[in-house]
Amino acid sequence: MLSETFYKLWNAGILQRGVWETIYMTFLSTAISYVIGLPLGVVLNITDREGIRPIRWLNRLLGVIVNFFRSIPFIILMVAMLPVAKLVVGTSLGNSAMIVMLVIAASPYIARMVESSLKEVSAGVIEAAQSMGATNFQIITKVLLPEAKPALIMGAVISMVTILGYSAMSATIGGTGLGQIAISYGHQRFNPDIKWICVFLTVIIVQIIQEVGTAIAHRTDKRITK
Amino acid sequence: MIELQNLCKTYPSANGGVEALRDISLTIEDGEIFGIIGLSGAGKSTLVRCINLLERPTSGAVVIDGQDITRLPTPELLKMRRSISMIFQGFNLLEQRSVLRNVTFPLEIAGVKRGPAREKAMGLLKVVGLEEKAEAFPAQLSGGQKQRVAIARALASDPRYLLCDEATSALDPNTTRTR
Asked: Which helix (H) or strand (E) covers residue B139, if one does?
């Protein structure tokens, strides 16, 4: 039964399209979110009371903004940000609009992820760089980011899986991908088989992202002695 | 010449603050090896860390070659720090960099080109007896080896002054000997 449904959808090219759209949305959103979230996380880290350049008001301000966006459940954020999507990509429908939503939701999350990864870099190593006369910019590019690289990669994997989850939710307001197939073909047409096929494919994608990401993080981590 | 003038350092705390340094004045001539001894918690590390302003003194002056560095603007202070190397108690090596790239690190910061920096670093690794560990990573080294990397790193920038916080505590009698 399940396999029959699977082949039917597969031969129609629906599943391939769904998988591709999910992957496309997830990767593109993650990439754009890092363009915003990574610098934001660095600023949050360095302007902290214990950072290399404490600026209290800026840290507080960014903290409040990040917390604001992080405290809104994604399904509500999505609906609320429709006008923003229209402003940015000219439409509030389709995948480009969904990517705007995903970026709005994921950037603050990634910023916190980056901030906490950088916090794990030991204060002693930062001091050593300072004692050599390193500028703050040099400390960021040569100490903080490279030393935190394995943690940053693990954070990216977690973020990507979260974004993949969000992308499925975006099907409720017109996003496509596996989420949309599960909802419109599966849920709304009372076909649990299709729902399970989508769940199964999503699990596979998540597993691959997790395994590959973990492997890269391990390979780059020089603290692990082989 | 390093001169400390009436140096005080008080750490703020709930009940008025902890006085780590109280009115310390001393002069260290060029070429002099100056040791600071004291009980654990006496403030030796704090004093050393005040010399390159990793720790800002609450009051007093740190005069290096006639210049009070507590009054220097940041860019000048950073430049001054390149001539004062420091060896830390905990080594503080960059874990994601190879031994060689740890030693070239201060040169990289000072804007020295890759080629000459590597050459210089290899020479120093030879001095501390770790040339065959150049491509190893700190996690693969013993405590004493890490410390020797830290020493090579501190010497890489040809510093005028060397601040050592327990620089030879992890070394055996063979490697401790100064030449």
From this structure: none
A63-81 pLDDT, tens per residue? 999 999 999 999 999 999 9
Q: Minimal Cα–Cα distance from A9 to chain B, Å?
A: 47
Residue B84 touches chain A, beta carbons under 8 Å = yes
User: Domain containing B122: what range?
Assistant: 99-168
> Is residue B161 situated within a structural domain?
yes
Predicted structure pTM score: 0.90
Nearest chain B alpha carbon to A133: B78
CATH class entry, domain A2-220 = mainly alpha
* Coil, strand or helix at A208: helix
- B163 and B126 within one domain: yes
Interface confidence (ipTM) of the complex: 0.91
How close A140 comes to chain B (CA, Å)?
12
The answer to whether residue B79 is domain-embedded is no
What is the count of residue pairs from A and B with beta carbons less than 8 Å apart? 77
Q: How far is CA A164 from CA A109, A175, A210, B38, B52, in A?
A: 14, 12, 12, 59, 49
Model confidence at A91, pLDDT cuts 50, 70, 90, reads confident
